[in-house]
Protein backbone atom coordinates (compact mmCIF):
# COMPACT_ATOMS: atom_id res chain seq x y z
CA UNK A 1 0.00 0.00 0.00
CA UNK A 2 1.43 3.32 -1.00
CA UNK A 3 0.80 6.58 0.83
CA UNK A 4 1.15 8.55 -2.41
CA UNK A 5 3.40 11.06 -0.63
CA UNK A 6 1.06 11.74 2.27
CA UNK A 7 1.71 11.14 5.96
CA UNK A 8 -0.51 8.78 7.94
CA UNK A 9 -3.03 10.59 10.17
CA UNK A 10 -1.65 8.83 13.25
CA UNK A 11 1.76 10.34 12.59
CA UNK A 12 0.26 13.78 12.26
CA UNK A 13 -1.18 13.46 15.81
CA UNK A 14 2.10 12.36 17.43
CA UNK A 15 2.94 15.81 18.73
CA UNK A 16 -0.46 15.98 20.42
CA UNK A 17 0.18 12.73 22.31
CA UNK A 18 3.82 13.39 23.13
CA UNK A 19 3.49 17.02 24.21
CA UNK A 20 -0.18 17.46 25.07
CA UNK A 21 -1.15 19.21 28.30
CA UNK A 22 -3.15 16.15 29.43
CA UNK A 23 -0.19 13.75 29.07
CA UNK A 24 0.77 11.83 32.20
CA UNK A 25 4.42 12.29 33.11
CA UNK A 26 4.46 10.60 36.50
CA UNK A 27 2.89 7.38 37.80
CA UNK A 28 -0.37 7.69 39.71
CA UNK A 29 -1.64 5.49 42.54
CA UNK A 30 -5.38 5.05 42.95
CA UNK A 31 -6.33 5.61 46.58
CA UNK A 32 -9.21 3.91 48.44
CA UNK A 33 -11.44 6.94 47.84
CA UNK A 34 -10.87 6.68 44.06
CA UNK A 35 -8.58 9.70 43.82
CA UNK A 36 -5.14 9.47 42.21
CA UNK A 37 -1.93 10.44 43.99
CA UNK A 38 1.39 10.97 42.18
CA UNK A 39 4.19 8.60 43.24
CA UNK A 40 7.82 8.34 42.17
CA UNK A 41 8.87 5.77 39.57
CA UNK A 42 10.75 3.53 42.03
CA UNK A 43 7.68 3.25 44.25
CA UNK A 44 5.38 2.56 41.30
CA UNK A 45 7.62 -0.16 39.87
CA UNK A 46 8.06 -1.79 43.27
CA UNK A 47 4.29 -1.83 43.91
CA UNK A 48 3.51 -3.28 40.47
CA UNK A 49 6.20 -5.95 40.90
CA UNK A 50 4.77 -6.82 44.33
CA UNK A 51 1.27 -7.22 42.89
CA UNK A 52 2.52 -9.35 39.99
CA UNK A 53 4.40 -11.57 42.45
CA UNK A 54 1.26 -11.98 44.57
CA UNK A 55 -0.77 -13.02 41.53
CA UNK A 56 1.99 -15.39 40.44
CA UNK A 57 2.29 -16.94 43.88
CA UNK A 58 -1.46 -17.34 44.28
CA UNK A 59 -1.96 -18.77 40.81
CA UNK A 60 1.07 -21.05 40.98
CA UNK A 61 0.19 -22.33 44.45
CA UNK A 62 -3.32 -23.26 43.33
CA UNK A 63 -2.18 -24.93 40.11
CA UNK A 64 -1.34 -28.61 39.93
CA UNK A 65 2.09 -27.93 38.37
CA UNK A 66 1.15 -29.40 34.99
CA UNK A 67 3.53 -26.94 33.41
CA UNK A 68 7.12 -26.10 34.11
CA UNK A 69 8.98 -22.83 34.14
CA UNK A 70 12.56 -22.45 32.91
CA UNK A 71 13.76 -22.62 36.53
CA UNK A 72 11.79 -25.86 37.08
CA UNK A 73 13.00 -27.64 33.95
CA UNK A 74 15.18 -30.59 34.79
CA UNK A 75 14.84 -30.05 38.54
CA UNK A 76 12.81 -32.93 39.98
CA UNK A 77 13.74 -32.22 43.60
CA UNK A 78 11.00 -30.86 45.85
Characterization of this structure:
- A two-stranded antiparallel ribbon has the order 1-2.
- The chain has a domain at 27-59.
- The model has no long low-confidence stretch (mean pLDDT 82).
- It has helices at residues 9-12, 14-19, 41-62, and strands at 28-30, 36-38.
- Strand 1 (28-30) and strand 2 (36-38) form a beta hairpin.
- The protein is mainly alpha-helical and 78 residues long.
How is the topology of this model organized?
Layout: H1 9-12, H2 14-19, E1 28-30, E2 36-38, H3 41-62
Antiparallel strand pairs: 1-2
Summarize the structure.
Helices cover 41% and strands 8% of the residues.
How are strands sequenced across the largest beta sheet? 1-2
Number of β-strand runs: 2
| Overall shape | flat
**What are the low-pLDDT stretches, counting only 5+ consecutive residues below 50?**
none
Q: What is the N-to-C order of secondary-structure elements (H for helix, E for strand)?
A: HHEEH
Counting H and I runs of at least 4 residues, what is the number of helices? 3
- Helix/strand-derived class? mainly alpha
pLDDT averaged over residues: 82
Beta-strand content estimate = 5-15%
> Helicity, in percent?
40-55%
| Rg, alpha carbons | 22 Å
What is the distance, rounded to the nearest whole angstrom, between the alpha carbons of the first and last residues? 56 Å
Question: How can the largest sheet be summarized?
Answer: 2 strands, antiparallel
